[in-house]
Each structure stands twice: as structure tokens, then as C-alpha cells.
Design a protein that fits this description.
Length: about 450
């Protein structure tokens, strides 16, 4: 990373009322001097100024905008920062960014570079940076809530507390390395080994409590499965409230997996409509049926749908290997009250997908299931696979630790465990993972 002053559009490119162009770096305030008529000697930070903005070379007026400046380190990046709040037309955005490119030592920001500079300047750690990325991508209330918690330091505080414990243990052990003639007292050996054992238990519990982790970002997968003509396509259309699947009386119409994303009471859910489960000689349909079986095996929750007028829930017995499913009897408007009572006693939800009757009963079951799953998970939710990998690496090093071997080797076990946690927060040299993390950010953030 160089020390040039960077600039980029921080809002979405396109027609809008306002477009924010962010400038960060040691020469940021030269924009005010070279592109406005504002008097820098009277300029006050964190105050908005309404002013025309000019091209630095031609002096052509580009727009009338609001300008605000933030003096380092009191800015998002920790550097001198200027934000231009211009009108949000494409012509204005292009004109202003082109003008900025004419200033010496200025260049366009790379993806995630503002957040990366904030990290290097101690304004955020890597978990907070990940939280920011998740907040930008949040599409549901729960995703927003979890992202804000992570940005607020819930994971940072937890992981730093573990790392601090390890640093204390390491410093104590290294003190004896410096004085090789001294033996570690037996009571100290017992104390250190117990602290390490307790820490392993804490981390293992943290890992085992996280049941939903990446699903909060990527979405819970719910598959709708059942025989042909059960009404699966009608049901997915009713749930997502739009026509995403073709509805037909012809058996085998659905041959591929059709997916639709839904915000279900704050939970991101991906519903999958699958091919009807039956024996078939049609090569294409057989592929669709195999895909359906794969989706059932991979799903977080299954909606097993059957035609109550022709089938019964026993047809799903081979798939009922856990409790993450609901049996749904469709076309309940065509059956007797006696059969309705029988199916309800067997735990079936009765609906009519075609007439859009009682669909909310299915979504209520789903919402309750995800709510209970979320409640069982740790309050500090692991949102990245790399967190799990690093914590697993930490545990492996701590499990190798004991004070019966060479003390230098024992110290190295603790040091490696420290480094593993540091990979999550950025408290150690982790340049090898920074590019991967920040490259997922958009330009201007």
C-alpha cells in the first residue's frame, strides 16, 4: 500500500439525489484549496460548507456541492479525509472524479482500500472490517443486527480476551527461559496447565455453539420435495408471492431445481422447488430426481409435500432421519373432515397451495425452527469460515502444550496458538490474508 491520496465514489453509481465522493490521504485538503473558493485558514473540520467545485486545471464549474473535512486521526480511515456531497448524476460523478485524477499524488482507490487503511491505522480490526462488509451486504433485519454487533466488537473482545490470556501465559514461561537454572514451581505448573485446559474448553464450546454461522450471510436452504403433481411449484409461488416456477397438471414439469430468495421474519431463506420423486425412464427427468435427492440431503430444512387426496405421509419415511422437516398435506380442500383430523394427528400441516390457504402455517413453522436454532447458538456468532479454521488451529496447538517437554517447545505451542487467534483479528502479521479479505469490498468503501 502506497501513501498516495485516494479518491472514489462511496455511493452507488447512477442517478440519485446525492453522490458522496470520498478523498483520503495526506493531500486530501488540497482539494479544498485547488477546487473550491473556501478559505482554508477559516475552515473548520466536521462542518458542512456549500460551495461551487471547479476543475483544478480549466477552472470550469463542475457542480455545487457540500464539502466536509475530517482531520486525522478523527476519520474513518484515520487519515485526513474530505467528502464531496455532489448531485448524483452520472455526468457530475464522472466530471468530479476526472478532475481529481488531475491532482498530483492522487489516484483512484482500490476495492476495500479505505477499510484497509482504517485497519492499518488502528481504526478497526479484521472482525470489525468483516462486520462492515456484512452490513453493506445485509438484506434482512437479522443480518443487519449481527453485522452491527460484530462491528461493535463482540468477536474482537472475546478473541482479544483469549489472546491476552495466552500472552500472559507466554510471558510467564519465557521468564523461566531467560533463567534456565530456575525450575517452574509445581503449583505454577498446575495453574498454567489448568488455564490452558480451561481456555481449550471455552474455545471448543464457542465452536460447538455456532450452529448457523455462515447461513446468516448466505441464507438457510429450504427444499420443497414430494411426488409429482403434489403442488410443489404452486407452493413455492405462494410462499415467495410471485411466479418463479411453472405450474402444470402434467407430471414431471419441473425437471431442474428452481430457487427463490425470501426474507422470512428477518431470516434469509433460499427455497428450492425440486423435481417430483418417482421412478422414471426419462433420462432428463432422472437427472432432476437425483438433484432433488441431493438437495434434500443438503437442506437445512425440508418441506415434504404430498397430495392429501391421493397419497399419505408414509412415502417420506426414507427421508425422515432428523427433526428438520415439516409434513405438508396439500389439496386439503378436497378431502373429508375425518381424513383431515387423521392427518393433523400425524403432525401434518394442511394447506391448499392453489387457493393460497394456510400457507402462513408453513412459514410459521420455519420461522420458529430458525428462531430456536438462533437462540441455541452463541451470542458471538462466527460469520466466517476462516474464524473456525483459525480457532481449530489454536486448539490443536494448545492440546499439544504441556510443561513436561523442553520449555522452549512449550512456549512455541502457546506462541503458535496466539498467532492463530491473531489471524482472525489482525493482531499479528497477516498480510497473506489481507488481500483476500479486502478484495471483496466495493470501490469507495
Amino acid at each position: 500500500m502506497d501513501d498516495k491520496t485516494i479518491y472514489a465514489l462511496s455511493t452507488v453509481f447512477g442517478k440519485s439525489g446525492v453522490a458522496v465522493i470520498r478523498i483520503s490521504g495526506k493531500d486530501a485538503f488540497s482539494v479544498i484549496k485547488k477546487m473550491t473558493n473556501l478559505d482554508m485558514s477559516a475552515f473548520k473540520y466536521r462542518r458542512m460548507y456549500f460551495t461551487p467545485i471547479f476543475h483544478p486545471v480549466s477552472r470550469e464549474t463542475l457542480d455545487n456541492c457540500l464539502v466536509v473535512g475530517f482531520k486525522a486521526p478523527n476519520s474513518f480511515t484515520g487519515e485526513d479525509t474530505v467528502e464531496l456531497n455532489c448531485h448524483g448524476s452520472k455526468a457530475v460523478i464522472r466530471a468530479v472524479t476526472d478532475a481529481l485524477s488531475k491532482l498530483p499524488e492522487f489516484r483512484m482507490a482500490e476495492p476495500g482500500e479505505y477499510s484497509r487503511r482504517a485497519f492499518y491505522n488502528g481504526k478497526m480490526d479484521l472482525t470489525e472490517a468483516d462486520g462492515l462488509a456484512d452490513l453493506i451486504e445485509a438484506e434482512t433485519a437479522l443480518q443487519r443486527k449481527v453485522a452491527l454487533q460484530q462491528m461493535g466488537g463482540t468477536l474482537l473482545n472475546l478473541y482479544d480476551s483469549w489472546r491476552n490470556k495466552l500472552v500472559d501465559i507466554l510471558s510467564y514461561i519465557e521468564a523461566f527461559i531467560d533463567f534456565p537454572d530456575e525450575n517452574i514451581p509445581q503449583n505454577a505448573v498446575f495453574k498454567i496447565e489448568k488455564e490452558v485446559s480451561d481456555l481449550v474448553s471455552e474455545i471448543e464450546k464457542h465452536l460447538s455453539d455456532n450452529k448457523i454461522e455462515e447461513r446468516l450471510r448466505d441464507g438457510f436452504r429450504v427444499v420443497i420435495a414430494g411426488p409429482t403433481n403434489a403442488g410443489k411449484s404452486s407452493l413455492i409461488n405462494a410462499i415467495v408471492k410471485r411466479n418463479v416456477a411453472i405450474v402444470s397438471d402434467i407430471a414431471g414439469t419441473t425437471r431442474d431445481v428452481i430457487e427463490a430468495y425470501v426474507d422470512l421474519d428477518g431470516y434469509p431463506v433460499i427455497f428450492s422447488d425440486t423435481a417430483g420423486l418417482r421412478e422414471s425412464d426419462d433420462k432428463i427427468e432422472k437427472i432432476g430426481i437425483e438433484l432433488a435427492k441431493e438437495k434434500i440431503a443438503q437442506a437445512d430444512f425440508k418441506i415434504f409435500l404430498f397430495d392429501a387426496s391421493t397419497d399419505n405421509p408414509d412415502i417420506f419415511t426414507p427421508y425422515l432421519n432428523n427433526d428438520n422437516y415439516v409434513l405438508v398435506a396439500n389439496k386439503a380442500d378436497k378431502i373429508s373432515d375425518e381424513l383431515k383430523n387423521k392427518l393433523q394427528k400425524e403432525g401434518c400441516v394442511l394447506i391448499s397451495a392453489k387457493q393460497n390457504l394456510n400457507i402462513e402455517a408453513i412459514t410459521a413453522v420455519l420461522s420458529q425452527y430458525f428462531s430456536e436454532l438462533f437462540a441455541q447458538s452463541s451470542s458471538q456468532i462466527i460469520t466466517r469460515r476462516r474464524y473456525k479454521d483459525a480457532l481449530t488451529e489454536c486448539i490443536e496447538n494448545l492440546q499439544r502444550f504441556n510443561l513436561n517437554k523442553e520449555i522452549e517447545l512449550s512456549a512455541e505451542d502457546i506462541r503458535l496458538a496466539c498467532r492463530a487467534i491473531g489471524k482472525i483479528t489482525g493482531r499479528v502479521e497477516v498480510d497473506e490474508i489481507l488481500d483476500k479479505i479486502f478484495s471483496s469490498f466495493c470501490i469507495g468503501k
